[in-house]
């Protein structure tokens, strides 16, 4: 009996020691095996994919009149294709973003890129308005999902310590489009044909799709973990890997992939039930609404007030775009710095092997500097309206545009980074929810914009939008002070 008891005790000790060894091996595994160079290439690849979402919308605006004349329909009919594009851009990411979280990033981004390429070729060839409308919806479905998938890739390969810089690069690319898009669209429509807008998009997106198909590896952590596992299915492997490393076989330790969840849009919206997610998404949605209303009103207002032609009117978008690109880069660096500063104050050492945020006040780290920027955005938004109302020198308007664009992108980078931190396992899904809400709010704001300008004047119209932006301050202050306690009560601290 005693010997048997000793054997049991020894077996227990061996089991505990074995468990500790396994735990130590797991801890020693890096968060991602992708090298810094590979991470940069992945970041730029998904950022280029994401830029097609925003540029496809803004490059279209200067061609509206030309399209209406060529297809012999009213401008109002062509404007409806803009509305339909926005509607689909809010819905599609909730489907494809959820699928990317479940099936992997690679097959979904390849499929949506193919959908985008095909729709652009069809748009360049179309002769009928009905076909134009349908293909614009398909174009939106293919393009809009790329941003949600890009956030998923960022969550796969970055730890919170450097995640701000990753999001900053992504949004630097996507916010270049609103300033460059109208200029490119205006030049092509005026010098060649509106059809060349879609040929250009088809050529550039097709070239990018070819590179993705050949080289893009799978990054989804439920499929390849930290990148060390070989996917079960060949669709999750790059053509390069299949051709030059055909001997690789999936590991028995790799997790089985889930099937397609047809309730993706519903799952996307359930992320709003979390109070922290809801506040971040609401703040981002309010800021995006102001951003959209400024962009939608600018061209028509400067043409009317300053008697500019279409091409010069398109150039007035540049200051906001330049401000946004600078802000995206520096905000990402600032968020990384403030994360490290908060970690030092909390006595938490840097750990490149883990992305866990257990016992870390991530809300305070990410929201340290956002409050004065929100005030700058509110002031710039109000100043925009009164500058136009008073018909001030156009240089004043361009300066205001620079500050508003920079402040808005600062908020976008902050919100995008914090959402990824709060939802590391379902980043694409929560970004899809974010896209749905912000597009719905922006569409409502733009729909009311003309009536507000005619009813109360452009000065008071954007004063109201400025005041709306200021409401983000108490919302984010509530999150900064209560966010961590909410997660501890719900048992999600560190997830």
Strand content: under 5%
Number of strands: 0
Give the radius of gyration: 24 Å
Mean pLDDT: 83
The major beta sheet can be summarized as: none
- Output the structural class: mainly alpha
Oligomer: single chain
Unreliable residue runs = 1-27, 252-259
Rough outline = globular
Span between N and C termini? 46 Å
Task: Name the helix and strand elements from N-terminus to C-terminus, one letter apiece.
Answer: HHHHHHHHHHHHHHHHHHHHH
Helix content: over 70%
Number of helices: 21
InterPro entries: MFS (IPR011701), MFS_dom (IPR020846), MFS_trans_sf (IPR036259)
Membrane topology: Multi-pass membrane protein
Transmembrane segments: 41-61, 108-126, 133-154, 166-189, 196-216, 278-298, 310-330, 370-389, 396-419, 457-479
Keywords: Glycoprotein, Membrane, Transmembrane, Transmembrane helix, Transport
List keywords for this structure.
mainly alpha; 21 helices; globular; 495 residues; disordered N terminus
List the helices and strands and how they pair.
Blueprint: H1 2-28, H2 36-58, H3 64-71, H4 75-103, H5 105-125, H6 129-157, H7 160-174, H8 177-191, H9 195-215, H10 221-224, H11 239-244, H12 264-270, H13 275-306, H14 310-315, H15 318-346, H16 362-366, H17 370-389, H18 394-422, H19 427-456, H20 458-470, H21 472-490
Helix pairs in contact: 2-6, 2-7, 2-8, 2-9, 3-4, 4-5, 4-6, 4-12, 4-19, 5-6, 5-9, 6-7, 6-19, 7-15, 7-18, 8-15, 12-19, 13-18, 13-19, 13-20, 13-21, 15-18, 17-18, 17-20, 19-20
How would you describe this structure to a colleague?
The chain has 495 residues and is an all-alpha fold. The chain is built from 21 helices and no strands. Helix 5 (105-125) packs antiparallel against helix 6. The model is unreliable at 1-27 and 252-259 (pLDDT under 50). Residues 42-484 form the Major facilitator superfamily (MFS) profile domain. This is Major facilitator superfamily (MFS) profile domain-containing protein. Pfam families: MFS_1.
